[in-house]
Amino acid sequence: MPEPPENSSNPTPLRGSDPLRCQAQMRISNPIPKVSILVMAAAVVYTLLISGQERMADGGLSGDEMYLAEKIFSVLPAISLFATLGLGLWRAHKAGSWFWFLTQVFAFPSTYIYTLFVNRGEETN
Fold first, then answer.
1. CA 113 to CA 120: how far, in whole Å?
2. With 32 labelled, which of 18, 43, 78, 82 sits at a CA distance of 20 to 30 A?
3. How many helices (H) and strands (E) does the chain have?
């Protein structure tokens, strides 16, 4: 198919004119690491909020001192961390990057760097 000349009268389509592209742009890009960071931050903020309570006098909560919601909430940061780690390892393996794969295995905070900045999971056309 021949390309149109540079000075053709055909206007270029607007960036958001494709309805499927508009729907894709409305979705949250890369949600797993972003939600994981929010869960980690929420855990730190919650710990700071309850730090003045009598049950936190020893600096931590045991299972007997925690409410059911707190027990569930205490597991969420670990689940979100492992979800992000799994995603980062899968993306590094898929990209064939053994450097990032091993870096994430031995230094898990690098998972957030890799999934948010290096390999965001976006397919290139």
1. 10
2. 18
3. 5, 0
Q: Is the pLDDT of residue 70 over 70?
A: yes
Indicate the SS3 state at residue 92.
helix
- How many angstroms separate the Cα of 45 from the Cα of each of 13, 37, 48, 64? 46, 12, 5, 22
Q: Which two tokens stand for residue 62?
A: 């045991």
pLDDT digits (tens, 9 = 90+) for 91-124: 999 999 999 999 999 998 999 999 999 887 776 4
Domain ranges of the chain: 32-118
3-state SS class at 123: coil
Q: Is 59 left (phi over 0), alpha (psi -120 to 50) or beta?
A: left
Q: b/e map of 59-98 (b: 16 or more CB within 10 Å)? A: eebeeeeeeeeeeeeeeebeebbeebbebbbebbeeeebe
- Per this entry, what is the length of the chain? 125
